[in-house]
Amino acid sequence: MLDEKKLRRYAKRLPPPAPWLPLAGGLVLAALFVLALVLRLHHLGDALPRDGDEGVYWQTLRAMSRGDALYRDVFLSQPPFFMTGLHFFYALGGETLWAARLGVAIFSLAGIIGAFLLGRSLAGWRGATLAVALAALDPIYLAASQSLQAEAPQLGLSLLAVGAAYGCAETHNTALRVAAAALCGCALALSILVKLFGLAALVPVGLLLVMKLSIRASRADMVPRAIIGFAVFIATMAAVLLPFRESLSAMWQDAITFHLIAASVFAPQPDMTLMAVARFLVYSGTAYVAALGLAVAVSRWDWRAVPLIGWLLATLFLLWRQTPFFPHHLAALIPPLLGLGAFAAMMRRPVWCGRGAAAALGLLGVAALDFVQLHAYEAEQAALDATESAAIASVAAEIRGTIKSDRRLITDAPFIAALANRDPLPAMVDLSQVRLRSHSLTSSDLIHAAQEPNVQAVLFDSEANILAAQADFYAWVSQHYRLVRRFAPGRHELWLKG
Predict the structure, then answer these.
(1) φ, ψ for residue 430 (rounded to 5)?
(2) Which of 251, 254, 275, 328 is the most buried (most CB within 10 A)?
(3) Which residues, in sequence order, are CB contacts of 401 under 8 Å at separation 6+?
(4) Given a cut of 70, is residue 374 above it in pLDDT?
(5) pLDDT greater than 60 at residue 426
(6) Whole-angstrom distance, CA of residue 324 vs CA of residue 494
(7) What is the arrangement of strands in the sheet containing 481-486, beginning at the earlier edge strand?
C-alpha cells in the first residue's frame, strides 16, 4: 500500500517549464506529426505487394464492396474491425489500393497521438516530444504503417488506449478524466477487435488501475473513471460485433479456432523467434532509448514504469507463443518500448552541458540511427520497384486481357488479380499456407471451386508455391484446364478452363 508521503515522492516532476516552452514544444510536436504523415504518405500507392497478405486483404475489401459478408461469404482470419474500419477509407477513397493503405496510415497516426499522451503523462513536454519523435521515425512502425496489414492499426489503437489510461490516471481535470477514460475503453476494445495481439494492452491498463487503487487517496477518483472506461469498452465491443450477431460462430471459427489449429500444425520455432527479437533490439534506436528510459525509471524508483514493463513482457510472451511467426509481428514491440523510452527525457543533465543540449544530442543520435534504417527501407522498396514492377504489371495485363470481368479465378497471387481488377471466389480470397496446411481449406475444396461455372482461370504463383504444392489440385488443373502462358522466369502460370 502506498501512503501519501510516498505518493508525493513518486509524483515529482521536472522543474516548472519556462513560459515559452509550451509554445515551442507545441510547434516541435506539430512538425513531428507532419513529418510522420509525410513519411507515411510517401510511395503509399506503389503497385507492389509489401507483404504476402496484402493481396488477401485487398481482395477482402473488394469482396465487401461487392456486398459479400465477412465470415459468411468471405474468410477472414482477423477480428472484424480490421476490415470494417479500413473499408470506410477504402470506399471513401475510390476503392483503390492507395485508399486502403491510407486507412492503415491514419490508424497508425492514432499511435502518434497515444505516444504524445503517454510521454506527456510520464515526463512532461520533453517526454511527449521524445515519444512522438520515436513513433514518427521508427522504421519498423513506419513499414507497418504503409502495408495493408493489421499490425499498424492494432498498435496505433493499443498505444492510444495506454496513453489515454496514463492521462486519465495523471490529470486532475474532471472533464479530461472522463474523456480519457472513455477514449481508453474505446481504443482498447477496437485494438482487440483489429488483431488479438491487442490483448497485451490489457496488462498495462489493468496494472495501472490496480496500482492507483492501491493508493487510498486515489480510490474515490479512480473508481468512477474505471467504471466509465469499462462501460465504453463493453459498448464499443457490442457496437462492432452486433452486425455479426448471426455469424458469431463462424467468426470464432475463422479468427480464433483457425489460429489454434494452425499453432498445432506448424512446429513452434522459439529459437527463431528469440533470434528475431534479439536482432530487432540490436538494430532498433527505439530499443536503446527504452533501455535508457528503464534505467532512469529504476534509478528514480518510478512505479509508473511497472505497467509498461508488464506490457513488454506480455508482448514478448505472445511473440514467443506465436505460431507461425513472421517478421512483421515484431512491430508489436514498438508501443511498450516507446513508453519506456519516454522516461529518458527525465534524465539529469550531464555536468558538461545543459539539459536542452543533452536532450538534443540524444534525439539526434536516435534520429541518426532511425534514418539509417529508413534509408535501408527506402532502398529495399526501390529494389522491389526495379525488379518486380514490370513483371507484376505484365502478369496483370495478361489476366485483364484474358479473363472476362464478370468471371472469377483461383489464385495464390491475389495482389496481382486485384491489380488486374479481377476477383477470386469470396471464400478463396485467402489461400495462404497457414490455411491450407491447417486443412481449413483442402484440395477437394479447391477442385470443387474450380468446377464452378463462373470460374474461368487458375493462376499459380510458383515462387509462393502454395497452390502448386497441392499435388492433387495441380494434377486436376493440368487435366481439365489448358496452360495459356508460363511467365518468365517461370514464376507464374496461367491456366484457362476448356
Answers:
(1) -115, 100
(2) 254
(3) none
(4) no
(5) yes
(6) 29
(7) 423-424, 408-411, 455-461, 492-497, 481-486
